[in-house]
Amino acid sequence: MRFQPRLAFSLTAAATVLALLGAIFSSPGLAEKKSDPALDEARKDVKMLDDVYKTAVVLITDNYVTEESDLPAGAAAKALFAAVKEKGWHEVRLLDVSGEPYNDENVPTDDFEKAAAEKLKDGADYYDEVQTQDGKRVLRAATPIPVVLEKCIMCHENYRDVEEGAPIGMLGYTIPLD
Ligand code: HEC
Q1: 146 alpha carbon to ligand 1 midpoint, in Å?
Q2: Given this model, what pLDDT does residue 30 score?
Q3: Of all residues in the chain, what percent carry a pLDDT higher than 90?
Q4: Choice from 156, 164, 171 to test ligand 1 binding pocket (greatest atom count within 8 A of CB)
Q5: Most CB within 10 Å of its CB: which of 8, 70, 93, 120?
């Protein structure tokens, strides 16, 4: 067959357009914009839970914690989170991002937690990823914990030098999606 430059050109152009479209549609940005009611719902749940848990921790610290030997709201929250997880609702982890945790158990461990800690320290007020765990989709989400009360410093001496509003910790959520 005789070489046909115009045909070759249009085939190349068509292939380029297809490749571009493929790249655009498989990019995470657009994929996320696809309708995903379960994801929207889970994000809303995180917002609500985050407000409820943080309000409770502040109320408890404000009203019931007066000495270093008192049960810290953080420890009470961990007990609550364990019960919530046990019942199969969702999972929440109370984590340190200050680099000096009270309890070494509370350091960010997996890739998601480490990435989230970096984003929040950089100033993000929310970070999330959709993951598959044991064959099921879950929303992993993280929200920052700033030093909200002067009283926090009673037990966390290292919070004294933290810039106002900067996160010293985070809550890490795992919410089932389907
Ligand atoms: C009475 C002492 C006390 C007070 C007051 C207190 N904490 Fe804690 N906090 C602890 C203890 C103890 C732990 C470890 C709990 C555990 O892992 O069981 C902890 C854990 C944490 C963690 C998880 C990371 C880590 O350091 O282990 C964060 C974040 C945290 N506290 C934030 C706060 C904030 C914010 C306040 C103020 C609203 C506060 N704490 C007030 C004692 C306290």
Answers
A1: 12
A2: 52
A3: 76
A4: 156
A5: 120
